[in-house]
Amino acid sequence: MPPMPKLSSLLTVSLILASAAFRPVFSEPLEIPLTVRERAGVERVQFPVTGAVPLPRGAAKSTEKLQLLSPEGRFLPAQFSIASRWPEDGSIRWLHFDVATNVKAGGESYYTLREIAPIPEFPSPIGFIPRGAEFEVVTGPLRFIIGGHSNQLIDQVWVDENWGYDFNERTKILDSGSFDLLLHANGQLYRTSYWAANRIEIEESNALRAVIKVTGSFTLADGKRSGLDYIAHMTVYGGKTYLKLRLTLLNSSESAESAISPAEMALQFRLNLAPDRQRFMLGSGASERAGTFESDRHVALLMRAPDRFEISGALTGDLEAREEAAGHGWADLSDEWHGLAILMKPFRRGGTGAFELDDDSIFRVFPVAPSSPPLLLPSGSATTGEFLIHFHGKRQLASGSVKQVLRGFSHPVHVVADPAWYCRKTEGDRWLVETSAEAYGSEMQSLVQRFDEGMRASRDALVGSRHAGLGITDVSDDPAGSRWPEWLAGAPLTLFWHFMRTGDLTSFEMAQRQIADLKDELLPVLIVQPNVGVDQARTRQAEGELVPVASKPGPAVGRLLQASSVESLLAAYLLTGDTESRSLARLSLEQLLDPRSTTNMSRFSNLGLQFLALLSGYEVLGDRRYLERAGQVADLMHAVQNGDRALLSRQTPLLADKWNEAMKDCYQCLGAAPGILWGGLLRFQQFSGRSDLAASLHRSMDRFWNDFRALEAGGSKHSNSWEGPFRDPLTFAAVAQERNISEAWNEGLGAFRDLVASSGSIKSWDHFALSYRAGQQFLRYLAERSKGRSKEEVSLLFSR
């Protein structure tokens, strides 16, 4: 048994993480270098981009004096918003901004975020005019109406590329009733226009960008519902004639047998084009074909595989898609005056996309093509596709800007800061340390670089074996949730951390794709109440209300997913500005606020997941209710440790029945990596001021270390499969630091070395998430320990 420290030291958090709360506030002039990186080989001209950057504690309380400057010191129009504040003093912790950027193909542009004298706000070209059933949107050169007489997502459209606000019959490209969003399923035709309770709302808005959300349902002409609902997010940009449509389909039926199989789905436009002047282009990435309708009245582009498109009709042949545009096709139909171009990223649950253009000015986009297998949507599932819809004038088409915009949205650019700014300089995340000689010293940096290379190898091996997504649907069909890997939804967080530490944009983009998968899984779980009739729930959804699951617990899979996804969703919000991720995180957190959320809990690890989710919610969103509820969950974790069966029986009866004496004094049953949970409890102690946690943590650490020593004394060694706690470097490091046990540090170094050596061998995303989350948190200990170490001491690590 290690020696027990004095009581005073129990109340002093010595874990390295705790020191962050007592560091001095930022006092230097704010000046942050930012880089816009273009990786797809597409020149960007005034390309809209949303950036995110952390600020040090105390650097700024408001955005009034913040401004983006070019390398020449010129003012750049930008819109700032506060994403999160430091809990300690209310200063800005994460900042979001919108800006239009210029960057050469494959190049970089450099900007500086500074705090300067207040400047006047610039006028926004974006305007909204609600008129009963009509909702008018103006971006400057583009005017369109949502709803209107046709009750459709797009009712009428005008384009004036001269910016003269000349919206008349000459510049009108789409009449009311000339757009249709339709679905063929179960042998019947459903339309969104038949659903009269659509709701339109402005979700975000500033001078450069706005997001409009429309919710509704596919129905028959007699109002009978298909069981398939939709959420459409339409992003418009100031001064642009294009909009981004993110369309989510939801099967919100409660019946497990209620699978919907759309055999065909189409967005159909009948444009105002001169019949004898029509021409078309079909493409993917930089590959394209152009023509007219002289030989045939229609032309089609069908996606046969992610990297191969087949052309038929007025043209024939194949298009080869490069990797940067795999699965993303586009088409354009125009005359001498104006036209429409659309880029499609098909639904993630499969299906084969297609475009079909006719010489009578009809432009059809098929996210689910008639010739492809049906898109299967089981009950309680969702899928999302994206479309860049670019109405344009003749000058935009002739200059080539239309193709550049389409290709640009196929592969967005990113505004990034230096890894040191995300990590040590601002503590954008309290745990992270960047990979640099300044942080570790040159000798130790070599080991950290090998760790990062191994993480990339494991990441790339997982992508190569399947796809970049999480593959959640492979396990979510188990009603009891018995096979659900709790840490699976933590993979995006782990990848976001890797980007912040190294600047690796591949990890950043992969995390974004995984977040898209995660949101498709969460939407049906969160927005339909199990104890409310399907019709009522759908009506409330169509009225614009995201209906949280309440009172009646949902499937175990849904509960686990809600708790384990919160940290990843909030990271996505902070780093990308994705407000839907924030909304879903909030809905999950609202669920966890209800004490009944633990009533049907059947796994002890759920307590740890809920606690970490609530704590993360408090840190990012600042809602003190989350901190208070985290304290209640912490009390339940202590009840497990203390063997308080009475409290467990009242709050978690299923866990009370499973409790046994072997669980006393430990936290191992509450999470696969105790070190992660200990770090969360120490952060909670900082925020809550509770002084009763240190003794409990020390008991848990002592139990862990004694169990490990007993295992070794018995001649056993835990496997290096990264499925259990005994070979987790973070847990050993926490024991070594808090309990002052040098042997534990040596074990932590050995476990970290094993993780470095396991390059490319981790076979699932949940093991990847847990192993490399713990490994990256361990790096803070490694950085602190490496300061002032001699070369001889460092060399011991490599000689183990």
> Helix amount, in percent?
25-40%
What are the low-pLDDT stretches, counting only 5+ consecutive residues below 50?
A: 1-22, 472-484, 529-557, 719-725, 789-800
**From the helix content, strand content and strand pairing, which structural class follows?**
alpha+beta
The outline comes out as globular
Attribute tags:
alpha+beta, 21 helices, 12-stranded antiparallel sheet, 800 residues
Secondary-structure map:
Blueprint: H1 7-10, E1 31-37, E2 44-54, E3 66-69, E4 75-76, E5 78-85, E6 92-103, E7 108-115, E8 127-131, E9 134-138, E10 142-147, E11 152-159, E12 172-185, E13 188-191, E14 199-205, E15 209-219, E16 225-237, E17 242-251, E18 262-271, E19 279-284, E20 287-291, E21 298-305, E22 308-313, E23 317-320, E24 329-334, E25 338-345, E26 354-358, E27 362-368, E28 381-393, H2 394-398, H3 401-410, E29 414-416, H4 419-422, H5 437-440, H6 442-465, H7 491-502, H8 505-527, H9 534-542, H10 556-576, H11 579-593, H12 605-621, H13 624-642, H14 645-651, H15 653-658, H16 674-688, H17 693-713, H18 729-739, H19 742-757, H20 765-786, H21 791-798
Helix pairs in contact: 6-19, 6-20, 7-8, 7-10, 7-20, 8-10, 8-11, 10-11, 10-12, 11-12, 12-13, 12-16, 13-16, 16-18, 17-18, 18-19, 18-20
